[in-house]
Design goal:
This protein is of the alpha/beta class and 248 residues long. The chain is built from seven helices and ten strands.
C-alpha cells in the first residue's frame, strides 16, 4: 500500500481544510433536495470554528463533506492540500483515518466492545501495533476521566461517559482535525457543559483544529470563530479568520 500524497509546503500548509463553492443535492424519487448551495470556507491549522444553525441548515452535511465521509455534488473540498474528490477510495479512507477524528451526537460506539476496545479501534485500523494502541487508549481514557471504566461496555456507561469514550476514540490517532457533530445534543445541560470544556481543553493540549456543528448558541459562544448556516448557505461569520491555537 502506497504512502499518502506529499503534504503541501509553505503558505498552503497553513490551511488545513477548505470548501470552495460546495453544493450538495440528494435525489429522492422525483424530488431533488438541495442541502448545501455554494458554501466556501477556509479553516486554518489551530482554528476553533463553530458551525451554527437550526436543524436542517446543512451543518452535518458540511461536516461530512469536510471530513471525506461524503462527496460534494458541486465544488471542491481540500483536506491538508489534497482534493478529496480526486483520491481513490482506499487512499481517501487512509487520509480520513489518519487526519480526522469524528465525534457524533449518537456516539456510535460498538456495543460488543468495551471502552478501551472502542477507543483503540481507529488505531488498529491504521495498523498501529497493539501495545502502542492500548497504551494510547489507556492514556486518553484516563485524560477524559474514565480511567476506572476501561472495561465497561457502552450500556454500562452514562450518555456523558459514552461521549467521553467517543472523544478519546477521535483523538487516538493524533489527528490534525476534530469534527464534532452536535456533541452535546443528547446530553443534559450539565453533562453538555462538561463535554465542551473537555473539548476546549484537549484542543489546546493537543494543538488540534476543532470544528463543532451546533444549534446551541452557548456552545457556539465558546468558539472564537462562528459561521452561521441558513438553508444550506453561509449567511454570516464572526471572529477572526484564523483562531489562536493557544486560545482555550
Amino acid at each position: 500500500m502506497s504512502d499518502l500524497p506529499t503534504q503541501p509546503q509553505g503558505e498552503a500548509a497553513s490551511c488545513l481544510v477548505e470548501a470552495i463553492e460546495v453544493g450538495k443535492t440528494y435525489t429522492i424519487g422525483r424530488r431533488t433536495i438541495e442541502v448545501l448551495s455554494g458554501v466556501s470556507l477556509r479553516v486554518q491549522r489551530g482554528d476553533f470554528l463553530a458551525l451554527q444553525g437550526a436543524s436542517g441548515a446543512g451543518k452535518s452535511t458540511l461536516l461530512h463533506l469536510l471530513g471525506g465521509l461524503d462527496h460534494a455534488s458541486r465544488g471542491e473540498v481540500r483536506l491538508d492540500g489534497h482534493r478529496l474528490a480526486g483520491l481513490p477510495p482506499a487512499e481517501l479512507a487512509r487520509l480520513r483515518n489518519r487526519k480526522v477524528g469524528f465525534i457524533f451526537q449518537a456516539y456510535h460506539l460498538f456495543p460488543e466492545l468495551d471502552a478501551l476496545e472502542n477507543v483503540c479501534l481507529p488505531a488498529r485500523l491504521a495498523r498501529m501495533p497493539a501495545g502502542e494502541a492500548r497504551a494510547r487508549g489507556l492514556e486518553l481514557l484516563e485524560r477524559v476521566g474514565l480511567g476506572q471504566r476501561v472495561d465497561h461496555r457502552p450500556y454500562e456507561l452514562s450518555g456523558g461517559e459514552q461521549q467521553r469514550v467517543a472523544i478519546a476514540r477521535a483523538l487516538v490517532n493524533s489527528p490534525d482535525l476534530i469534527l464534532a457533530d452536535e456533541p452535546t445534543g443528547n446530553l443534559d445541560s450539565h453533562a453538555g457543559a462538561e463535554i465542551i470544556e473537555l473539548l476546549c481543553a484537549l484542543r489546546v493540549e493537543r494543538r488540534t483544529t476543532l470544528i463543532v456543528a451546533t444549534h446551541d448558541a452557548q456552545v457556539a459562544a465558546r468558539a472564537p470563530r462562528v459561521a452561521r448556516l441558513t438553508d444550506g448557505r453561509l449567511d454570516g461569520e464572526t471572529g477572526p479568520p484564523r483562531g489562536d491555537p493557544a486560545s482555550p
